[in-house]
Amino acid sequence: MNTISGLDAMSVTEVDVDPEPEVIGPEETDVELTVVEPDGSPVADATVVVSGGTATMDGVATAKTDDEGTATVTVDPSLGPNQGDGELSVDVKPPANGGYTDRRGNTAILVVREDAG
Length: 117
What we know:
single chain; 117 residues; mainly beta; Immunoglobulin-like; five-stranded mixed β-sheet; three-stranded antiparallel β-sheet; 1 helix; 10 strands; 3% helix; disordered N terminus
């Protein structure tokens, strides 16, 4: 029974990312990413990684969160010729200390072509 009672000590906290703005155009844009715990508390020293999804990007953009859990990355996404919108993926490498994990999907950054209509 000691094994079961020790499970609480090994629990981890899932983190999420709140991008601002959440919707951008296919041009160079600074995006502020805030890494938070489920209760909204900020997570410092996490590394955020933005990469292409259904919208493409040359390479990846990375940054480390500050004491307020916020990091700013510059992205320059593009869309295909007949593509009206797409998404950039956001991943988090949580800090080694603190018992955090990032197993679930995070909020993506939506890229929308304004002249799609």
